Amino acid sequence: MGDFLAENDPRIGVKEELEVREPRKYKVLLLNDDYTTMDFVVEILIHVFNKSETEATLIMLAVHNEGKGVCGLYPAEIAETKVDTVHKLARQAGFPLKCSMEGE
Ligand code: TYC
């Protein structure tokens, strides 16, 4: 402080145009399999992806019928953490449930 003449002070008179940009988002997908129970997938969608019971049931059924489905869109680091959390919970429960992410 006090080291700049007012006319040269970079802190004065500079109109900063700060562009606010959203971070790139990634889709987190659940994949169907023949062994994971429907109830377990619904619990995952409620607790990991913050879905209501109704939404969770609809997404689970879409994955069951179509092979895969989107659980949500998140910045890279959050998407990676969700994938890891799903795999950890599935492994602990003895299910082969798979989750992946793909760029928007
Ligand atoms: N297909 C499983 C069953 O019939 C249910 C299931 C749904 C499994 C979604 C995985 O991501 C999944 N028990």
Automatic annotation (TrEMBL):
Single GO term (MF): peptidase activity
Family annotation (HAMAP family): ClpS (MF_00302)
Gene: clpS
Top-rank lineage group of the source organism: Bacteria
Name of protein: ATP-dependent Clp protease adapter protein ClpS
PANTHER family the record matches: ATP-DEPENDENT CLP PROTEASE ADAPTER PROTEIN CLPS (PTHR33473:SF19), ATP-DEPENDENT CLP PROTEASE ADAPTER PROTEIN CLPS1, CHLOROPLASTIC (PTHR33473)
Membership in a protein family: Belongs to the ClpS family.
Summary of subunit composition and partner proteins: Binds to the N-terminal domain of the chaperone ClpA.
Annotated ranges, domain Adaptor protein ClpS core: 22-100
Species the sequence originates in: Paucidesulfovibrio gracilis DSM 16080
NCBIfam families referenced in this protein's UniProt entry, alphabetically: PRK00033.1-5
Keywords: Hydrolase, Protease
Single GO biological process annotation from the record: protein catabolic process
